């Protein structure tokens, strides 16, 4: 059992390395508790200060988290690769409402464009790498059409890549950053891995709340990360009314870094009401993963000159640039009427699937006004997730997405056949009434 893993070492560095080794080997599972500082100090014959320093180093790297009396535990998704293979999160034969990705059958086809590009694409050397001007021009037109402030444009390797580079360019370990609560699990993991301190901002159907942002600003945050629409996991959309209020608050903090993630992009029916531009440092990120496919690791970015220059500078020190092969593919897809029509069809299908479940859930307090997820508060998410799996339905526990908000489950509707919505709602209702699953 993972809980029986015993860290070793006589120094803080050795103890932290031992815990990391246990995580890599799979002997310490995500969520596994670590011994208390005093207990481990006694077992290893070291001072409590040594163990505390080891745990602090692990927290700063995002490997563990400490929750008051709950002690120190391995984070749900620590930033280290594991050697052992675990069973898939979705059991064989179960209805997959947990994975969170787009429906592959609804994605535009790449092959015809790749064939044409292969026949005509010139080779690119080190000197020729970088953002393609034709891609930046198209991205700028799309941003302008949505009312996004004008600024310097660039290309990153996906949404998380752009957000990470912007955060690293402006913030330092220990800085506070305001994040949505509940919010995107990958972002929460990234914030932990960068050694930043998350400050939760509650979210309702109209986006981050006014009171939540006010509290975060009062706490001295150096950055804010928000989602424009189709927020993961709640489906929230920043409304025009909410955006006006939040922008007024942000204008009093001109040095604050504001990052806005529009991952839904063309899949969203809802209009964008951006917060970026209310402060001097900002970036608006639009990934192509949801509408065109997760394997297309490209995101268009617009921001102030300093922020975007720093993003590009950090990229040059590492991968250099986003492959021009991928960039040319994006240009081809954006200019293809058939690809545009496919994305529009997918947008309508996703809306139908999400609304079918929300309708079937009836009076339950489900959230999900846009996107591919429905967020449902529950008394005990562990028993709910386990119970629904017994019913052949896989959903995601809310613990991966929340900091201070109460328990909930995330139900992804991207793969949901509307004809199954009633079955899912009936199972959820039954488990809420009786977690044991008995007919009542």
What distinguishing features does this structure have?
440 residues, alpha/beta, eight-stranded mixed β-sheet, 15 helices, 15 strands, 40% helix
Describe what is shown at a glance.
The protein is of the alpha/beta class. It has helices at 12-25, 37-44, 48-60, 111-120, 133-145, 159-170, 185-193, 210-218, 240-250, 289-292, 305-316, 324-334, 337-361, 381-390, 421-433; strands at residues 64-66, 72-74, 95-96, 152-156, 176-181, 197-204, 207-208, 223-227, 257-261, 281-287, 299-303, 373-377, 393-394, 396-397, 408-412.
Written account of the structure:
This protein is α/β, with parallel strands linked by helices and about 450 residues long. It is about 40% helix and about 15% strand. It has 15 helices and 15 strands. The protein has helices at about 10-25, 35-45, 50-60, 110-120, 135-145, 160-170, 185-195, 210-220, 240-250, 290, 305-315, 325-335, 335-360, 380-390, 420-435, and strands at about 65, 70-75, 95, 150-155, 175-180, 195-205, 205-210, 225, 255-260, 280-285, 300-305, 375, 395, 395, 410. The strands form four sheets. The chain has an eight-stranded mixed β-sheet, sandwiched between helices. Strands 12-15-14 form a three-stranded antiparallel β-sheet, with helices on one face. Strand 1 and strand 2 form a beta hairpin. Helix 1 packs across helix 3 (about 50-60) and helix 8 packs parallel to helix 9 (about 240-250). The longest helix has 25 residues, at about 335-360. The radius of gyration is 23 Å and the shape is globular. The model has no long low-confidence stretch (mean pLDDT about 90).
């Amino acid at each position: 059992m993972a809980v029986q893993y015993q860290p070793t070492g006589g120094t803080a560095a050795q103890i932290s390395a031992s815990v990391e080794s246990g995580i890599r080997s799979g002997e310490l599972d995500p969520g596994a508790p670590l011994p208390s500082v005093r207990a481990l100090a006694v077992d290893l014959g070291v001072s409590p200060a040594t163990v505390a320093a080891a745990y602090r180093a692990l927290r700063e790297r995002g490997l563990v988290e400490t929750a008051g009396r709950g002690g120190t535990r391995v984070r749900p998704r620590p930033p280290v690769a594991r050697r052992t293979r675990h069973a898939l999160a979705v059991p064989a034969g179960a209805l997959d409402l947990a994975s969170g990705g787009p429906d592959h059958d609804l994605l535009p086809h790449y092959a015809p464009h790749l064939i044409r590009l292969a026949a005509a694409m010139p080779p690119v050397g080190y000197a020729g790498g970088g953002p393609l001007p034709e891609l930046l021009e198209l991205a700028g037109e799309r941003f302008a059409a949505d009312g996004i402030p004008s600024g310097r444009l660039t290309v990153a390797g996906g949404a998380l890549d752009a957000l990470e580079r912007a955060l690293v360019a402006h913030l330092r370990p220990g800085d506070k950053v305001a994040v949505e609560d509940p919010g995107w699990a990958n972002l929460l993991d990234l914030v932990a891995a960068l050694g930043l301190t998350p400050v939760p901002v509650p979210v309702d159907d109209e986006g981050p709340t006014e009171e939540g942002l006010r509290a975060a600003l009062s706490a001295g945050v150096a950055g804010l990360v928000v989602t424009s629409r189709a927020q993961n996991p709640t489906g929230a959309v920043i409304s025009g009314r909410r955006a006006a209020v939040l922008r007024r608050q942000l204008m009093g903090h001109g040095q604050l870094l504001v990052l806005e993630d529009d991952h839904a992009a063309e899949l969203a029916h809802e209009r964008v009401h951006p917060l970026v531009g209310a402060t001097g440092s900002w970036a608006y990120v639009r990934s192509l993963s949801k509408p065109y496919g997760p394997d297309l690791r490209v995101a268009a970015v617009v921001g102030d000159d300093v922020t975007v220059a720093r993003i590009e500078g950090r990229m040059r020190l590492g991968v250099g640039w986003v492959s021009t092969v991928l960039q040319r593919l994006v240009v081809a897809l954006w200019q293809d009427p058939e690809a545009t029509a496919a994305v529009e069809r997918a947008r309508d299908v996703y809306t139908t699937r999400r609304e079918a479940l929300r309708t079937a859930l009836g009076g339950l307090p489900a959230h999900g006004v846009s996107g591919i997820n429905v967020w449902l508060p529950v008394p005990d998410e562990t028993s709910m997730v386990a119970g629904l799996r017994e019913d052949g339905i896989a959903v995601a526990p809310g613990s991966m997405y929340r900091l201070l908000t109460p328990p909930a489950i995330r139900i992804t509707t991207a793969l949901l056949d509307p004809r199954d919505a009633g079955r899912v709602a009936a199972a959820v209702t039954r488990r809420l009434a009786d977690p044991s699953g008995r007919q009542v």
